[in-house]
Amino acid sequence: MKKHLLILSAVALAFTAKVATAQDTLYNPGFEIWTTNSLAASAMDPNKGSGTTGWWEFNVLNSSFVGSSPISVTRCSDTVHGGTYSARIESVVLTTTSYSYISKYGFKDTLGMVITGNLAVSLSGASFKSGIPFNSEISQLSFYYQYAPNGVDSAECLVALYKWNGTSRTQVGGGVFKTNASTAGKGWQQANVPVACTATPDTMVVEISASSLYSKPKPGSMLYVDDASVTLLTGINEPLVIGSSVQVYPNPASTTVNFSITGMYSSATLSVFDITGQKISSTEVRDGINTLSTQALSNGIYFYQLYNNNGNLIKTGKFTVVK
Fold it and tell me: Which of 98, 128, 162, 225 could form a disulfide bond with 203, CB atoms 3.0-4.6 angstroms apart?
């Protein structure tokens, strides 16, 4: 029973994480570091081992103490974008025993994913701190992938930025990437996850899944992931052209919000996201006043990103809807 409770603590992914010291880096972005799982001898984890910060997954559920579910994340050396290894993520069906340990946390019984965090496991107990220390606003997270969905399925990446207020974590930004397209015959593709921020974070959580996290995941969907990176907001927030600007009004908005754009001598694309990073709209815009109806938007904070006609992000900002 003690071992069952120990492993339950390890896989619970408590999402009550305390914030660690902040810094600006991804841990093991190329999936080059792997260690043997201390509780599931046949599994390896893409990190430096128990108590370290990096990518973690559900390989611990392969332990006989919690149901002997199939291993979902493995080190791959024959399908690599850069370096020696990549991560091979496969959606697997958890055994009934394994699923009983994680069902209350909202996960499906079919899953294959990696998540950033710090997992410490010992005979005296275990704890999981979700997220990595990160204290810069970013415009996007990128990674390379190859995907083979099983039927109607989608690979997903969720990015969430948090800030510790002294008693709890508050989400201050995020982004979502989804694809249901197979990359068969196309090789490595680059995924770009647009990220919008309302404040400087101190923690970043990244989840990358081979299947839909919310709707009918399929066992056997396969996702290869390699070479993740982030783009700092200060590195991409460049002037449009000399004398150009973007003004947003009224702000707060009730029925409509206007984007007054000057200095764009060709068409551009304006995308709007909610606080979770979910894209709300994407519209072609030009010089002048471009109006967006807020009728379908709930009260809250929204973000915009302006891309030039080459698809490069050149301006970001935020506005508030109050009805």
Answer: 162
Of the candidates 174, 211, 117, 184, which has an alpha carbon nearest to the alpha carbon of residue 300?
174
**What DSSP letter does each residue of 304-323 carry, written as one string?**
EEEE-TTS-EEEEEEEEE--
Is 255 exposed, middle or buried (CB count within 10 Å of its CB: 0-12, 13-18, 19+)? exposed
Return the CATH class of domain 2-233.
mainly beta
Residue the block writes with tokens 């396969």: 222
Hey, where are the domains in the chain?
2-233, 237-321
* Single pTM value for the model: 0.73
Q: What residue type is assigned to position 298 of the chain?
A: S
CA–CA distance, 148 with 155 (Å, rounded to integer) = 9
pLDDT digits (tens, 9 = 90+) for 39-66: 888 899 999 888 888 899 989 889 888 8
pLDDT tens sequence across 189-206: 999 888 888 788 999 999
C-alpha 145, offset from chain centre: 14
